[in-house]
Amino acid sequence: MLLAAACIFATAAAAQGEEPVETVTMVQDAGYPPYMMQTVSGPQGIYADIIREADRRMPGYEIDLRALPWPRALHLVSTGRVQALLGTYYRPTTRPWLREYSAALLYESVFVFCRKGVAQKGWTYPDDFSGLVFGNNSGFSTPGSAFFDMVARGEIFLNEEQTTDLNLKLLHLGRADCYVQDKSVVDPILDQGQYDRIEPVKQLTYEAAFVGLAETWAPAAADRFKMELDRVLKDMRQDGTVDRIVFSNIMD
Length: 252
Description:
Elements: H1 2-15, E1 22-29, E2 31-32, E3 36-39, E4 42-44, H2 46-56, E5 61-68, H3 70-78, E6 84-88, E7 98-101, E8 106-115, E9 133-137, H4 145-152, E10 157-161, H5 164-172, E11 178-182, H6 183-190, E12 198-214, H7 219-238, H8 241-251
C-alpha cells in the first residue's frame, strides 16, 4: 500500500510538473551541545540548524532528522535502518559502514582560554588545571568527559552562565580562571578589545564534522544526495550562513 501510494504521489507530482520529493532519514547525537542535542522541540544544535537550512535549499529532498543517544544513532546507521549520520568525524576504520562523507559541515576548533598568567601553554588538559575555576555555557559538554569527572571529584570548580559573552566577562574580571569554547566564536569577541586579559592557552580539538552516508543506502541515490548537499553547503559557507548559525547557537 505504501509503495502504491508513493507511486501515485510521484505520478501526480510529475503530471503537475513537480519533481517528486525524496525523504532522507538522518540521526544525530542527543547530548553533545552546542553542536547536537535534543530538546522538547526536537533535534537542535549547530548541526541541526545547518542541515535544516540545507534541506530548505534542496527542494528535491525532505530530511527527517532525529536526535538519539550516540550509541543508538550509530547502531541504526550501521544496521541500515537509517540512511545518514549527522555530525560524524572521519572514521573509516571504526565506522566502515559509512560508505561516503559529505563536505565538512564545520571544523570544531576548541581551545582553553584563561586569564593571562593563570595557566601555561605546556599544561596537560584537564589534569594540570586542577584547583581552577572554569566558566562554561549552561548545559554545554564542550570541556569533555574527563573535565566533568574532575568537577564531580571536586578537583575543578565550575561556574555556568547562559552566554559566551558573560563567561568571557567573568573570566576577564577574575571571577573565573579559564573557559573552554570554540575559537571561531571567542575570537570575534576578543577582537573587540574589551577583554584584553584573556588568552588562548591550549587547543583541545580540531576536527571536521560531516554527514556520513550509510553503505546500505543505494549508491546512486546516496551519491545524488551527496552532490546536492555538498553544493548547498558550499553556498552556505560562502554567503555567511554557517557563521551566522554558529553565533546564534552559542551567543543566545
